[in-house]
């Protein structure tokens, strides 16, 4: 599952598309493809969505967030993920947009989830009830 679509990324990074569409190269038809390609944008959506799920889980939220069950939080999360992927598209074309490599993206996602946790709770996004392994390990060490 991904938060957002390639078409939504194209809307934010249209300069790098072919009339608003990501294209994979096809040698048989002499189609060069876009930079990045549709396949690459799809991979980035999947990867950054997975990172978002991990960050949500770290804040005890049940992930992935479903668009039908939690439309408000899903839209907010999708908007953020799509923006990160669009920034990756700009970066792939040599345009720095204050987005760092992959490591900082995870840090940014974690900060974003933490800063929006109260809003997610208010919107009814469920959280896990069981303690994390990290908390259990800390308790065992201290206790």
Instruction: Tell me the major beta sheet.
Output: none
Shape: elongated
Helices, by number, come to 5
Helical amount: 55-70%
Characteristic terms for this protein:
single chain, 143 residues, mainly alpha, 57% helix
SSE blueprint:
Elements: H1 6-12, H2 38-58, H3 71-92, H4 102-122, H5 133-142
Helix pairs in contact: 1-3, 2-3, 2-4, 3-4
Describe the structure.
With 143 residues, this protein is mainly alpha-helical. It has one domain (6-142). Helices cover 57% and strands 0% of the residues. The chain has helices at 6-12, 38-58, 71-92, 102-122, 133-142. Helix 1 (6-12) crosses helix 3 (71-92), helix 2 crosses helix 4 and helix 3 packs antiparallel against helix 4 (102-122). The longest helix has 22 residues, at 71-92. It is elongated and about 55 Å long. The termini are far apart. 27% of the residues are buried.
Summarize the entry for a quick read.
It contains five helices and no strands. By secondary structure, the protein is an all-alpha fold.
């Amino acid at each position: 599952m991904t938060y957002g679509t390639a078409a939504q990324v194209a809307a934010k990074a249209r300069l790098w598309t072919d009339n608003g569409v990501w294209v994979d190269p096809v040698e048989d038809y002499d189609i060069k493809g876009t930079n990045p390609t549709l396949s690459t944008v799809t991979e980035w959506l999947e990867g950054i969505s997975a990172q978002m799920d991990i960050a949500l889980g770290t804040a005890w939220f049940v992930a992935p967030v479903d668009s039908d069950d939690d439309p408000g939080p899903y839209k907010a999360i999708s908007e953020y993920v799509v923006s990160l992927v669009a920034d990756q598209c700009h970066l792939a074309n040599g345009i720095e947009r204050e987005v760092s490599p992959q490591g900082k993206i995870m840090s940014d996602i974690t900060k974003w989830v933490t800063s929006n946790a109260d809003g997610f709770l208010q919107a009814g996004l469920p959280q896990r009830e069981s303690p994390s392994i990290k908390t259990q390990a800390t308790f065992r060490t201290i206790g």
